[in-house]
Amino acid sequence: MKVYFIIFLLACFISNAQSGFTDEVKAIGQKYDTLYDASKESIVFTGSSSIRVWKDLQERFPNHQVINSGFGGSQAVDLLQFTNDLILRYKPKKVFIYEGDNDIQSKKRPKEIISTIAKIRDLIFKDNPQTEIVLISAKPSISRWKLRRKYKKLNRKMDKMTLTDGRLKYVDVWKPMLDGRKVKQDIFVEDGLHMNAKGYEIWYSTLKNYVN
């Protein structure tokens, strides 16, 4: 009886987690039902909360139709589950992906994360082989600095993944966010994880050439 109860609790937990993402993904879809213009080329930025809370993405790149489909707390497996809703439906010419940050925090191995990103890549290329994919490196942060070696290992694997296919790019936001060997202290909000305007200015400067 105890075993069945534990299974029931796990099922409820998984169901609630999935419905949480489902609601957020649905809200993103409803937002772009009115904003998305299918007659124009689009660029999708997606991934976890570092993308989701980048509120001025469209204003940063006014010459492009930018879709911000980031969803907070997500991991690569979550993006894989919602690839169609968050990426493919917008028929993007470019896709910027930021995943891996929460994965490492959740004790997933870099090899496992890369395998999931590869599945997302394959779905995108199957839908449109001409799409360009830009993988954004995991960022350093104050709150997760103790995990820096694992993040750096993931970034190396991500970089290596892009070397054999011209449609894949890797952009390193790790080094620009460092002050010597330490992470910059004044580019985060109070939680030490999410970025403030200074942090996003670094991201913009680093990413702009890949957008344009």
UniProtKB/TrEMBL annotation:
Q: Please list which residues make up the signal peptide.
A: 1-17
Query: InterPro entries, alphabetically?
Result: Ester_Hydrolysis_Enzymes, SGNH_hydro, SGNH_hydro_sf
* Domain of life of the organism encoding this protein: Bacteria
Task: Provide this UniProt record's keywords sorted from A to Z.
Answer: Signal
- SUPFAM superfamilies for this protein: SGNH hydrolase
Q: Does the keyword Thylakoid apply?
A: no
Q: Where is the SGNH hydrolase-type esterase domain?
A: 55-202
What this protein is called in its record is G-D-S-L family lipolytic protein
Question: What is the taxonomic lineage of the source species?
Answer: Bacteria, Pseudomonadati, Bacteroidota, Flavobacteriia, Flavobacteriales
